[in-house]
What does this fold into?
Amino acid sequence: MAEKQRFQAIKGTRDLLPPETALWNHVERTANEIFSTFGFGEIRLPIFEPTELFARSIGADTDVVSKEMYTFVENPGVSSLEELRHIAVQMYALHIKDGFPDFFLALIRSLIHLVQSKSQVRELEIGSQLQSDLERMQLILNEYEKLSSSEELHEKEKKSKLLSDLAIKIQLLRFSDRVSLRPEATASVCRAYIQHGMHSLPQPVKLYYTGPMFRRERPQKGRYRQFYQIGAEVLGGTDAPAIDAEVIEMVMTFFARLGLEGAKLDINSIGCRECRPAYVELLRAELVKVKDQLQPDSQRRIETNPLRVLDSKLESEQPVIEKLPRIAEHLCSACAAHYASVKHNLVLRNVAYHENWRLVRGLDYYMRTTFEITAPGLGSQNAVCGGGRYDGLIEILGGLPTKGIGFAIGEDRLILSLQEAGKAPAPRRLDVYVAWMGEKTYDTAVRAARALRGAGFAVELPASAQKFGKALGHADKLGARYALILGDDEVASGQWTLKTLSDGSQSKFTEPDLLAHLKL
Ligand code: HAM
It folds into this structure.
């Protein structure tokens, strides 16, 4: 007999079960209520989008895009081509300097051949871009072959240039569209804003969303590969600091309504295109001076993204980071005024904040205001909300210059923190368990259940008759408030017995009286 296979949810993903899902619903309903009082409407977005959308918005060099996205090709028929392409790229990078071009060239010839045969059997459609890339590659191959095998320097140089041109072409070859499971939703909201011409609506457009996001991170408490966000974005109109403050006020109001205590708001301004580059260069110069006191990750970031060094949580790096120049002292006058006004507007709204000059956030699209909210009970993954301003993102994605600001709450973490603080509301109880016995009573039991459910009560109607003792035991286990006992006597007399399970007391009611009694 075949061995039974036990399937498990994939690492980093979870099933959310009752009664916990009642808390999830409560949180989402509350978001809907609070956000609508601030004039936000819900947007529902696709779970996957073109990979390029995320690469362009979040930044190709960020951890999220370079390491954590779940990406796949739209047409599975091209996966063998993708593998060959990948091998060719690797082979060029590893061996070309050692001089093994023959194998590399043979691989490329096979790749071109395979593309052509797939197209003949209609497994692949060769678009105009792919067609011209293939033709160019074929030309380079022909040119390479025409060159003699002479070892003359200028010929060798020419050949190595041709090989490098081929490698670049291979790297850029695209056999099919690539799509990714969304790692966040800001990029999608911006894409939707452009796609639906929302710039012609009254501005700003205020949208919120809830749903799963996907990042291939190392799972731990509060960090999952499929996690849920509740987010909101304000697009268009002005970049008035009052908008930044109102968006933050909305999150804090939402947290307060849920009873989340101890939420701490950190804010910062990371400047704009005018002032940030000079600060980043200054930071880089200062970091180079202390490079030997930093760990490899931070050392690498001096080159790639010096701002991210400020994110480091490593104990040994803290004294070094504390002495680095702070962006607040290097903001241009427009950014400094904007930041001052955001703080003033927060005070007006009674929102307490802490300034944190090291809050730079890990996604490339931010400018000026950034913020993060931490909550207790979460251990190291304690950021429960992150957000900021991203004027310019819509333009990068092909839209008109448009202002933007928003946030996303990690719903999994929010729920964890509420649970740790005992703030989960009691899940809905079962009101009535219909204990029926005897074939003749079944019709009445069905009618009673329909009437009670119609009046809004939660009712359990067992599918088959049970002895009353067993039925009452079951009702108790389910936590029912009442058992409605229906036997032959009750049906014949029209007097139904209602048992209060907490004290065992019983009373008799006619059908209309019973409903009236329960509604009290
Ligand atoms: P983010 O900081 O990458 O920002 O994510 C926002 C929140 O999502 C985090 O503070 C955290 O609570 C939660 N989160 C992120 N990754 C995970 C994970 N692996 N497991 C559980 N929770 C996680 C954004 O996503 C931006 N789109 C926010 C935004 C909207 N900025 C402007 N508008």
User: Anything to note?
Assistant: Residues 184, 186, 215, 217, 222-224, 227, 229, 231, 233, 383-388, 406-408, 410, 412-413 surround histidyl-adenosine monophosphate (CB under 6 Å). The two ends are 59 Å apart (CA to CA).
